[in-house]
Design goal:
- It is a single chain.
- By secondary structure, the chain is of the alpha/beta class.
- It has 3 domains: 234 residues, 4-Layer Sandwich (Glutamine Phosphoribosylpyrophosphate, subunit 1, domain 1); 200 residues, 3-Layer(aba) Sandwich (Rossmann fold); 144 residues, Glucose-6-phosphate isomerase like protein, domain 1 (Rossmann fold, 3-Layer(aba) Sandwich), CATH 3.40.50.10490.
- It is 35% helix and 23% strand.
- The protein contains 18 helices and 27 strands.
- It has an 8-stranded antiparallel sheet with strand order 3-2-4-1-10-9-11-15, covered by helices on one side. It has a 7-stranded antiparallel sheet with strand order 5-6-7-8-12-13-14, with helices on one face.
- The longest helix has 22 residues.
- It is globular and about 75 Å long.
- It binds 6-O-phosphono-alpha-D-glucopyranose (G6P).
- 6-O-phosphono-alpha-D-glucopyranose binds next to helix 9.
Length: 608
């Protein structure tokens, strides 16, 4: 949530900062700004709206200099206005600061500063922080930052510089990610590696309660008690092209089409041939402990939560574990029975979601084994868990998650298989699962080939403002995810429901302007799904069905059929999710929505 990018080196900073902001825009996009210094003069440019609005202003003003900081904002305190955009400055307008996170005690600090004569131009908590640092500044910026941060409650990832000493950028972190990019005599920093990979693949992660100083030739890290921190550089494997659209109109469409590859990446090197069991290197260190676990809680948010909901059914099928799925934001406040025989599995694309991280910390406090399923290597959740597995899905830029959702479902299936095979799952059943997973990329390709057909259906339905998505068993979470995709990117009201519950409420909504998307694979729920569809048709509701190839029976019951390849029950939902992603995408496109950056949403939610 919110994006930070900084540069100090030999090149002109502005183009690098602007490029970085574009790559971070999915983290927040209601206003943006940069501050660049050429040693004598500091240029501050801010604008409301997307980064392209800022770009127009930047082109007109041509800020120049070899160091600078930049920010794209997702508003928490104060509306999106130029005054509230970052960088924020203090009383003397000499310190320039960008901030991700929330200063929870900003009101108290502000009152105190006002009494000391400070006046404020914005409604932001960030401006309070700049004034506070200014209050402590006596020529030593790092010292002032540490002293000020000692008084701050809340979360922050900050970058700042002082006009009188434009040879250094100071960064500090608690709860909001910051990554240093190490180039040849140039240094960058950003809240996300996407902003760095074009310039360097060598990174150093800043941890909580650490401060870094970048200058034109060097960098160093200390903790808030001034102790030197030595940290190895890491090499990022994501290639720059992965963060570009490669001819697709939107990142979301590109990411939907990347899914066959994503499945291959999630499976690569992880299936032990002929054994019906996966090898998950990240879990090997805790395998013995895992064998004594009786209960697992999946904790996550948004789309990752739906991956957990699906995985519950898969774990129930393949393992003897008892599984609970909980929104991370709820989990941390519940009074749960957690002990050393309990594991929690945090599922998070970004690995930075504040609620999920808080849930991990809460579970750790209670003695649970903490596992992670994360896409972003080196992210906070990946570091704060005892063990875990990476998705290896590459960067996901579209705010609405598609390829990582699928990848999560694949890896969760592998985890269930691993545990199940140590329990009662037979070799034969294990082999059925691994074979179905290996066939998955081809099956997905078959669905993707129907994109034009799905677009055609979406055109016919784009005028509706309400949708119901129904499914049973494994496909109930997929119905919810399908509804979420539609509401996220096309601002259409959509409800995902367990089809059996339809008669207990949603059926009252059914009428010709309230279409239903029904998922009905050829499993034990088929005839019940047909009954639900008949109930909808009896009330003049339109129905689009996602059904398996060769199901000729369904045609006569519904208005449209999207046929998908058939596989085993537990893998079928992974295929069924693809047409729903495409359906949401094409409806949003038809309605002219901002698909990759939907209003009010952000990719990485680092506020609670
Ligand atoms: C935000 C994003 C969603 C994502 C959710 C959880 O709401 O817009 O796409 O599913 O956060 O994010 P995580 O990174 O923890 O999976």
């Amino acid at each position: 949530m919110c994006g930070i990018v900084c540069y100090i080196g030999k090149q002109e900073a502005t183009p690098i900062l602007m490029e970085g902001l574009k790559r971070l825009e999915y983290r927040g996009y209601d206003s943006a700004g940069i501050a660049v210094s050429d040693g004598d003069e500091t240029f501050l440019v801010k604008e409301v709206g997307k980064v392209r609005n800022l770009e127009e202003k930047v082109q007109a003003l041509s800020p120049h200099g070899t160091m600078g900081i930049a920010h794209t904002r997702w508003a928490t305190h104060g509306r999106p206005t130029v005054e509230n955009a970052h960088p924020q400055t203090g009383e003397t307008e000499k310190i320039f600061l960008v901030h991700n996170g929330i200063i929870e005690n900003y009101r108290f600090l502000k009152d105190d500063l006002e009494e000391k004569g400070h006046t404020f131009k914005s409604q932001t908590d960030t401006e309070v922080l700049v004034h506070l640092i200014e209050e402590y500044y006596d020529g030593d910026l790092e010292k002032a930052v540490k002293e000020a941060l000692g008084l701050v409650q809340g979360t922050f990832g900050i970058a700042l510089f002082h006009r009188d000493n434009p040879d250094k950028i100071v960064l500090a972190r608690r709860g909001s990610p910051l990554i240093l990019g190490i180039g040849e005599n140039e240094f960058l920093a950003a809240s996300d590696v996407n902003a760095l990979i074009r310039y360097t693949n060598k990174v150093v992660h800043l941890n909580d309660n650490e401060l870094a100083v970048l200058n034109h030739t060097n960098y160093h890290i200390t903790d808030f008690q001034d102790r030197k921190v030595t940290r190895e550089m890491e090499t990022i494997e994501w290639d720059q092209g992965a963060a570009e659209k490669k001819g697709f109109e939107h990142f979301m469409l590109k990411e939907i089409f990347e899914q066959p590859e994503c499945v291959k990446n999630a499976l690569r090197g992880r299936i032990v041939e002929g054994e019906g069991v996966p090898r998950l290197g990240g879990l090997e260190g805790v395998l013995d402990r895992l064998k004594s676990i009786e209960k697992v809680h999946f904790v996550s948010c948004g789309t990752s939560y739906y991956a957990g909901l699906l995985a519950r059914y898969i774990f129930e099928k393949l393992t003897d574990l008892s599984v609970e799925v909980e929104y991370a934001s709820e989990f941390r406040y519940r009074n749960l029975r957690i002990d050393e025989r309990t594991a929690i599995l945090a599922i998070s694309q970004s690995g930075e979601t504040a609620d999920t991280l808080a849930a991990v910390r809460e579970a750790r406090r209670k003695g649970a084994l903490c596992l992670g399923l994360v896409n972003v290597v080196g992210s906070t959740i990946s570091k704060e868990t005892d063990a875990g597995v990476y998705n290896h899905a590459g960067p996901e830029i579209g705010v609405a998650s598609t390829k990582v959702f699928l990848s999560q479902c694949v890896v969760l299936t592998l985890m269930a298989l691993l545990i199940g095979r140590y329990q009662r799952l037979s070799l034969t059943d294990g082999l059925l699962v691994t074979r179905a997973l290996k066939e998955l990329p081809d099956h997905i390709n078959k669905v993707l080939k129907q994109a034009d057909y799905i677009q055609d259906i979406a055109r016919q339905y784009a005028k509706y403002n309400d949708f119901l998505f129904i499914g049973r068993l494994y496909n109930f979470p997929i119905a919810m995810e399908g509804a979420l995709k539609l509401k996220e990117i096309s601002y259409v009201h959509a409800e995902g429901y367990a089809a059996g519950e339809m008669k207990h409420g949603p059926i009252s909504l059914i009428e010709p302007n309230f279409p239903t998307v029904a998922i009905l694979p050829r499993d034990s729920t088929y005839s019940k799904m047909i009954s639900n569809i008949q109930q909808i048709k009896a009330r003049d509701g339109h129905v689009i069905a996602v059904a398996v190839e060769g199901d000729d029976h369904i045609q006569s019951h519904v208005d449209h059929v999207i046929s998908v390849p058939h596989t085993i029950d537990i893998i079928q939902p992974l295929i069924n999710t693809i047409p729903l992603q495409l359906f949401a995408y094409y409806i949003a496109k038809e309605r002219g929505c901002s698909i990759d950056k939907p209003r009010n949403l952000a990719k990485s939610v680092t506020v609670e």
